[in-house]
Q: What sequence folds into this?
């Protein structure tokens, strides 16, 4: 999962960088940079996500906001995505949500492995 999260980190970073010519580029830079950071943490420092209570709460907040934004901007006409800014933004938020879900699933998987080892060590 580290390779997948590393790839998603780079991908979302590239999404963030290409927002330089967007009229609301700063907002969309942040929207893409936040999951890039979470994916980077999951790839390179997965233990950092479980070491405090603040990190899971911040992650959960980001995920809830991404899901809410995806629902709010869910495209009704995907066939016209190249010509409709709102449809592109809705698809962008859906990608952000998918990346955050992958990060969450990989962290849960890592925690299960760690906790499984601790249980086996006690036996």
A:
């Amino acid at each position: 999962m580290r390779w997948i999260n590393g790839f998603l980190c780079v991908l979302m970073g590239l999404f963030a960088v290409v927002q330089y010519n967007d009229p609301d580029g700063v907002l969309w830079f942040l929207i893409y940079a936040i999951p890039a950071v979470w994916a980077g943490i999951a790839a390179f420092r997965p233990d950092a996500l479980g070491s405090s209570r603040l990190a899971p709460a911040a992650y959960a907040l980001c995920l809830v906001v991404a899901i809410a934004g995806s629902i709010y901007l869910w495209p009704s006409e995907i066939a016209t995505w190249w010509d409709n800014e709102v449809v592109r933004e809705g698809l962008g938020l859906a990608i952000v949500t998918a990346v955050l879900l992958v990060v969450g699933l990989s962290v849960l998987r890592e925690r299960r492995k760690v906790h499984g080892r601790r249980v086996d060590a006690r036996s």
Observations:
- The two ends are 28 Å apart (CA to CA).
- The longest helix spans residues 85-122.
- The mean pLDDT is 85.
